[in-house]
Amino acid sequence: xxxxxxxxxxxxxxxxxxxxxxxxxxxxxxxxxxxxxxxxxxxxxxxxxxxxxxxxxxxxxxxxxxxxxxxxxxxxxxxxxxxxxxxxxxxxxxxxxxxxxxxxxxxxxxxxxxxxxxxxxxxxxxxxxxxxxxxxxxxxxxxxxxxxxxxxxxxxxxxxxxxxxxxxxxxxxxxxxxxxxxxxxxxxxxxxxxxxxxxxxxxxxxxxxxxxxxxxxxxxxxxxxxxxxxxxxxxxxxxxxxxxxxxxxxxxxxxxxxxxxxxxxxxxxxxxxxxxxxxxxxxxxxxxxxxxxxxxxxxxxxxxxxxxxxxxxxxxxxxxxxxxxxxxxxxxxxxxxxxxxxxxxxxxxxxxxxxxxxxxxxxxxxxxxxxxxxxxxxxxxxxxxxxxxxxxxxxxxxxxxxxxxxxxxxxxxxxxxxxxxxxxxxxxxxxxxxxxxxxxxxxxxxxxxxxxxxxxxxxxxxxxxxxxxxxxxxxxxxxxxxxxxxxxxxxxxxxxxxxxxxxxxxxxxxxxxxxxxxxxxxxxxxxxxxxxxxxxxxxxxxxxxxxxxxxxxxxxxxxxxxxxxxxxxxxxxxxxxxxxxxxxxxxxxxxxxxxxxxxxxxxxxxxxxxxxxxxxxxxxxxxxxxxxxxxxxxxxxxxxxxxxxxxxxxxxxxxxxxxxxxxxxxxxxxxxxxxxxxxxxxxxxxxxxxxxxxxxxxxxxxxxxxxxxxxxxxxxxxxxxxxxxxxxxxxxxxxxxxxxxxxxxxxxxxxxxxxxxxxxxxxxxxxxxxxxxxxxxxxxxxxxxxxxxxxxxxxxxxxxxxxxxxxxxxxxxxxxxxxxxxxxxxxxxxxxxxxxxxxxxxxxxxxxxxxxxxxxxxxxxxxxxxxxxxxxxxx
Length: 875
Hints:
Elements: H1 19-25, H2 33-42, H3 44-49, H4 54-60, H5 63-71, H6 73-91, H7 95-98, E1 110-113, H8 129-144, E2 148-153, E3 161-164, E4 170-173, E5 185-186, E6 196-200, E7 206-216, E8 219-225, H9 233-236, H10 247-272, E9 279-283, H11 290-300, H12 305-314, E10 316-319, E11 330-332, H13 333-338, H14 351-358, E12 369-371, H15 372-378, E13 382-385, H16 388-397, E14 413-414, H17 421-424, H18 427-437, H19 439-447, H20 451-454, H21 462-490, E15 510-515, H22 531-538, E16 545-550, H23 558-572, E17 580-583, H24 588-597, E18 600-603, H25 615-620, E19 625-629, H26 632-637, E20 643-646, H27 656-680, H28 689-702, H29 708-729, H30 732-748, E21 753-759, E22 771-779, E23 788-797, E24 803-810, E25 812-813, E26 822-830, E27 837-845, E28 873-874
Parallel strand pairs: 1-2, 1-9, 2-8, 9-10, 10-13, 13-14, 15-16, 15-18, 16-17, 18-19, 19-20
Antiparallel strand pairs: 3-4, 5-7, 6-7, 7-8, 11-12, 21-22, 22-26, 23-24, 23-27, 25-26, 27-28
Protein name: glycogen phosphorylase
Catalytic activity: [(1->4)-alpha-D-glucosyl](n) + phosphate = [(1->4)-alpha-D-glucosyl](n-1) + alpha-D-glucose 1-phosphate
Function: Phosphorylase is an important allosteric enzyme in carbohydrate metabolism. Enzymes from different sources differ in their regulatory mechanisms and in their natural substrates. However, all known phosphorylases share catalytic and structural properties.
């Protein structure tokens, strides 16, 4: 029989054990070893059965066992120590509280919006790298004391669970998640009623949502849930699953995340006294509507749309994670228009103004499509990509929003992602470090960084490092066999068929890991291009290789599913199945075993389509070496000490099959001739000394770079603090001033021109260190010199006379306007480099409240007839 209603019966903890409830409800346990060990001591078997989830554990432990623990003095002392440690962690001053900047105070609070958060497997609200990054961002912010508020959605089915059919086809399952069984609590009014946010929908409908709060250390994570009784069936399903449904379903999810999320933040701050955010950080375009809600708030206070837009932009940060336009959510213009304005959401905001923020009204765009990333960029004064290479790719991809500017001047910077080491470093690795520098210093090294602490790895003996690597490899072998047996049972195999699994993998064989989502550009099956050669590597008599593979294809991506099946079928071959395995249902729990147990982490995307690729960072923190295409973070920090770079064949006319053949061959060559020989090259002491040295250097030199603590500190100093300063500067009057100035500049700009350029050096050859005197005549129309900056732009030139590595030199006005209203600007231009050299001049708008000269996307450049000096080359 099936139950007609489900609910959770919570245990009543004896008074001495009451702190267990607080410890279970704060997700710091997910990265704090002592807390996890305490819960394991409550009931070791129950801990494993509960999936290492304290809330589920406490829901299943017997009353008899609780009574025993309440009398166990040793356990109670441990409980007191762990509870006191959490209290110190939550209340003490940390990096943020001790940090100061010369330009002003740090933000009182930052709201961080993301469609998914990967904090722990016990809260399955993530699909892949974007969510794991968001979870690590929250955890690192907590460790550093950054006053962050996370905002997301609570999906009742999460992302899908993956299994395989007998023939290797991916199958999806969507288990129902009960928030009452997860480490979250419902946000309630003082009278006990749930807090509710509501959105207006077309035809008089409403979308209501409750707010669940997960406490991630010091950081509250607010998750909106539309599964409430007041909603109709379709509205209840808005937060049913992550990245599911059609266009309108996705639009409603993103409206709830952005608009509802701001309303949830306001409610939370009012109820708890948490400082109101001065900065709003949009992690990818899904939450971009948050800017519209903030404009609506200001409009209700009597602020005009344009002024409200400037005020909102000043305090908004936008992070893009995708290197390809296909990865961005885009909606039909009419669909968006139907959900805004009178009779729908934001009735006080002009629908056309809403549309203008997201429509692709630029060369190469589709003007009837509403682009969430474009809206994110137009609503944020500061934007970034997630690695140096990805920043450059993003500047090129979105250059149409800033016409007239070279891609390298597009105002998108980069902050390279990092990973939260306390979450991803295996306990065995941490304990080895703690023995050398002490537990507290080891914790600080993982959370905050500091190369001096990581240098202590140099003091660890080769034998200790090698013994640790084998221990971790052995744990992975056990984990793989357990998961592989469970997978084959799901595929319909009986026990009599599965005896071979006991011989799968070997703890003494070079182990390569590959695990990630399975879009085509990540090339899951590149390793299969030459199956005979791969088989020879797997079965090599002296230098064998074993490979562990995991990954999920999107439920709607049949191409990705075919790649999974192709890999699974190869790994099912009895000749090689003991050396290559595919593990279904890749998630955080599996990853935390996989990264430490591998010797080499493989990544072979199509360059430059990997925005960052943080899985290799997590592997590196455990002493795993990277074998990767130079893409994402690896392009930035690769050194031969840390691993190997797979050469790419990315010429402009390269055939796809030919490219894959060449890069697969390069991969095989590296493994056969460099990776495997180094692993198996043993010295007189039986140790692979050169391999161990690479592990040591990876930990000591790469480790501090890949930390989420480093990443969050960069966000604070480079983006959050300047955004807070700009937010404070944009008072209502200042916002109106800036909006009015922009309108005046845009109206006048068609009459702004570089009229003539003169230079005192007519020759095309000049000497290093000499100076040219530039004299430029410009037309400003209705503008004044204080509205613009006239610049000389100089640098090397390529064969097409394009400036490279250019530098700008401001020119100054020389007297008032002439009879035709033209202004003369003058200035020196120093020839500071040899070889092909050139310059041009340009006019940009300038205002004290602009974040960048390219902000308006306006620039006036010389024409062919401007004068003798424009574009002169010195060779």
